[in-house]
Amino acid sequence: MNKIVMITGASGGLGQTAGRMMMEAGWQVAQVTRDESRMDPKQEDIGKIIESDVSTPEGSKAAIELIQDRFGEAPSALLNCAGSVLIAPMHRTKLEQYRECLQANLDSAFFSLSAFVAALIKKKRSGAAVLISTVAARIGVANHEAIAAAKGAVEGLVRSASATYAAKGIRINAIAPGLMKSPATARFFLNDKVNQQIAFQYPLGRYGDLKDAASAAAWLLGDEAGWITGQILSVDGGFTAVRPMIRR
């Protein structure tokens, strides 16, 4: 298996962190973004930048073709970090917000994965993909209706697609992170008191770091996870599985 990874949503915090981590581990990194102007110039040392909108079938196919042109072959790994965060109660969510949330989170996952597996099948090669879900798809979190619906669908996509393509040696998994401090979530971390309240929600006593999610995703894409497919790995400090003991 070659070591070319296609990372969508590469301009975001998780895409950047994962890209640098995987480059340091010996991967060639194709950083896919729909708007190259949003990329930090420093990211050019992570890997080649590919401009394409993977929330459409045409854009996802174009991204694969551009990677083939610039790297000499199609990627053997996909990390779909494309997405957006929408925190609002359902009755206050406008139709355009809902549609944009599904496009950014579900459509990008579906179409990038579809183009990725099609390229592998054409070349009769194995590979691995990791999609991104959220704790809000696994446990009820207030004001997360749209994002929970989108990411819940992503989890269903992982299970069905992993069954479809397992016989071809294509592994498909996802991670479901808790709240991580990143440029996209900076508005939630207002001050030390609020940050402490956020940390107290997690049994391990802290909120997430981008490296937590990036490490889990990189492991699932690597050979060490070669017998794992169809799984949703919670990376959430115990949020969805553990009720901590309260000491007074």
TL;DR of this structure?
The protein has 248 residues and is an alpha/beta fold. The protein has helices at residues 13-24, 57-71, 95-123, 145-165, 192-200, 210-221; strands at 4-8, 28-33, 48-51, 77-80, 127-132, 170-177, 180-181, 208-209, 232-235.
User: In CATH, what is the class?
Assistant: Alpha Beta
The span between the termini is 53 Å
- The computed structural class is alpha/beta
> What series of H and E elements makes up the topology?
EHEEHEHEHEEHEHE
Shape: globular
Say what the CATH topology is: Rossmann fold
Read across the widest sheet, the strand sequence of neighbours is 3-2-1-4-5-6-9
The beta-strand count equals 9
Oligomer: single chain
CATH superfamily: NAD(P)-binding Rossmann-like Domain
Proportion of residues in extended strands: 15-25%
Q: Major beta sheet, specifics? A: 7 strands, parallel
- What is the count of distinct domains? 1
Corresponding CATH architecture? 3-Layer(aba) Sandwich
Low-confidence stretches: none
User: What's the number of helices?
Assistant: 6
Helical fraction: 25-40%
What's the pLDDT, averaged over the residues?
A: 94
- What is the radius of gyration computed over CA atoms, rounded to a whole number of angstroms? 18 Å
Characterization of this structure:
By secondary structure, this protein is an alpha/beta fold. It has a single domain, classed as Rossmann fold (3-Layer(aba) Sandwich), CATH 3.40.50. The protein contains six helices and nine strands, in the order E-H-E-E-H-E-H-E-H-E-E-H-E-H-E. The chain has helices at residues 13-24, 57-71, 95-123, 145-165, 192-200, 210-221; strands at residues 4-8, 28-33, 48-51, 77-80, 127-132, 170-177, 180-181, 208-209, 232-235. The strands form two sheets. The protein has a seven-stranded parallel β-sheet with strand order 3-2-1-4-5-6-9, with helices on both faces. Helix 3 (95-123) runs parallel beside helix 4 (145-165). The longest helix is centred in the middle third of the chain and has 29 residues, at 95-123. The termini are far apart.
